[in-house]
Amino acid sequence: MTQTHVPPRLQVEGLMRSFGGRQVLDDVSFSIPAGQVTCLLGPSGCGKSTTLRIIAGVDMQDRGRILVDGALVCDTVFRVPPERRAIGLMFQDFALFPHLSVAENVAFGLAGSKAEKRARVSELLDRVHLARHIDSMPHALSGGEQQRVALARALAPRPRILLMDEPFSGLDERLRDDIRDETLALLKEEGTAVLLVTHEPHEAMRMADEILLMRDGRIVQRGAPYNLYNAPVDRKAAAFFSDINVLTGRVQGALTPTPFGDFLTPGLADGTAVDIVIRPQHLKIDFDRAGRGPNPTAQDGTPARGVVERARFMGRESLVEFRMEFDGSLLRATVPNVFLPKPGTPMWLMIRRDRCFVFPSV
């Protein structure tokens, strides 16, 4: 039985864009199938919003092309107007029309009879838990409620693709989590292909099926959130997702000596400078040996001694900063619950070798 090939809902091929001689996008390519949430993640100025603007049709690329369901939407010669691309937009400043009711905002741009429009508006407002506000004015709603109206408006015409640019950054943290989850559930139900732009790694990991990590106009790594977090492509990628500690060393015979013991570094020439990266939650405090000295048979390698410089309770965990005796560097460890040793307290530390990343120094 012959299987029919289904093209991606959105396909971006080789986008290039420069402004004033500065390369803003450099060969950006990716695809998104229907029903998938993909996140463009990266620091400000890396090219995320420019990519979104070109897909939406409000900016033009210098090179490359965009296809929707296998049909060409634009290249450097041909261009479908933005309003005919079946692409919805949702931005941080969701900009509801203040003179229109909630129902009129959601129905804006919808085709069909008055009854058909009202039915679609009622359906969406019910799904975002705002049916009781169907005839309210925007100024009578909270920020979170306005955000949900904006989502309903973006989804009302049943776009094949929804572009979202920092859509939740204007909300307080607790409200943001709730609305993010509600939004994700609704988008999955609608089967919309979503391209979300954010500089917040926690937001990307919470919402995305796939993350595209951007830096300096290029996609430097792509994959599921779990894979990007646990297998970062380089030190910068690791640091983008969380705080990190960095040990430095030089390769000697496929090993890199550190105060925590030798690390395997195969494939690197002798003398190569390397960074050994470990996150604070994987720096272990050896409570059993606090003051008795190191045990060379310790499962996690050789312990090294540090002196507590500062300890703070962060709500769910404690952050303890250590001044290390071997070189005076500062390493940070996170400990579940409340752990607040006094400054000046010496302790032995070990590191989870299976949770370390080794990268050539740049």
From TrEMBL:
Which PROSITE patterns would you find in this protein's record? ABC_TRANSPORTER_1 (PS00211), ABC_TRANSPORTER_2 (PS50893)
Domain named ABC transporter is located at 10-241
User: Is Ion transport found in the keyword set?
Assistant: yes
Keywords of this entry: ATP-binding, Cell membrane, Ion transport, Iron, Iron transport, Membrane, Nucleotide-binding, Transport
Provide any one GO MF term from the record.
ABC-type ferric iron transporter activity
Q: Which Pfam families match?
A: ABC_tran, TOBE_2
What biological-process terms (Gene Ontology) are attached? Answer: quaternary ammonium group transport
Gene Ontology terms: cellular component? ATP-binding cassette (ABC) transporter complex
Q: Which CDD domains match?
A: ABC_Carb_Solutes_like (cd03259)
Report if keyword Cytoplasm is assigned: no
Q: What is this protein called?
A: ABC transporter ATP-binding protein
